[in-house]
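We were asked to recover a plausible sequence for a given structure. The inputs and outputs are reproduced exactly as logged, with field labels preserved.

PROBLEM: sequence recovery
POSITIONS: 93
GIVEN STRUCTURE:
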């Protein structure tokens, strides 16, 4: 009785090796994309934090000025802009 099925050939091992290499390349590429995405997320959040810090500093300056001098036209305009902002308006009401 003979053996059943295909006989292993050298080209099969070469094909397997090439598939393995291709899979490894794809894995490295996915890993690179994942890290790029995470880096972009971190950068965006850092920008948002900086923007919030600047806004907070601006508010602190306004409050300090109000404590010292009272309200002037520039501050009135700033407060008017804030009340026109839909996000802030919902917080005030």
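RECOVERED SEQUENCE:
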């Amino acid at each position: 009785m003979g053996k059943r099925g295909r006989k292993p050939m050298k080209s099969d091992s070469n094909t397997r090796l090439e598939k393995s290499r291709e899979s490894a390349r794809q894995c490295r590429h996915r890993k690179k994309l994942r890290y790029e995405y995470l880096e972009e997320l971190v950068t965006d959040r850092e920008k948002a934090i900086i923007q919030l810090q600047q806004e907070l500093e601006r508010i602190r300056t306004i409050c300090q000025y109000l404590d010292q001098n009272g309200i002037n036209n520039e501050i009135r305009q700033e407060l008017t802009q804030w009340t026109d902002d839909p996000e802030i308006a919902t917080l005030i009401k």
